[in-house]
Design brief:
about 140 residues, alpha+beta, 5 helices, globular
């Protein structure tokens, strides 16, 4: 199995950038508790891909992002791609937090259509959230 062993998230999620205007809007929505995220992962033609978007609770899109998911075809399946999309949201939120520093530790609800990804996340913790945010 191919494992991601880097902590350079820019390698895994290239060009995950936001403009000053996008950042300000996302920060305001997070601070007001008015942001949700949605993820999707898929496998098509033996290639994995993931995507996520952040929006206001009213449905106004604040940011969207899609990316290829590297790996051997034997390791590429829909649960893995969905988990990578969820990780993408967490990394993006970390970038926002690094810039805007939310002292009240706001919550962002993440929607996924993968029951297996949710089950796997709770059974086997692949990502330690405290490690993602430890340097902030």
């Amino acid at each position: 199995m191919n494992r991601i062993t880097t902590t350079d998230y820019d390698e895994i999620f290239p060009n995950m950038n936001f403009s000053e205007e996008e950042g300000d809007k996302i920060n305001e929505a997070i601070s007001c508790g008015n942001v949700v995220a949605a993820t999707d992962g898929s496998v098509t033609n033996n290639m994995g891909s993931g995507a996520f978007c952040l929006s206001t609770k009213d449905g106004d899109i604040l940011f969207d992002y899609s990316f290829p998911i590297p790996g051997a075809i034997t390791d590429t399946h829909s649960t893995r791609t969905e988990m990578m999309a969820i990780l993408g949201v967490l990394i993006f939120l970390r970038k926002i937090h690094s810039k805007y520093k939310h002292p009240n530790k706001p919550n962002v609800l993440i929607y996924t259509d993968s029951k297996n990804a949710i089950k796997t996340a709770f059974e086997k913790i692949f990502v330690s959230i405290s490690n993602i945010f430890e340097n902030d």
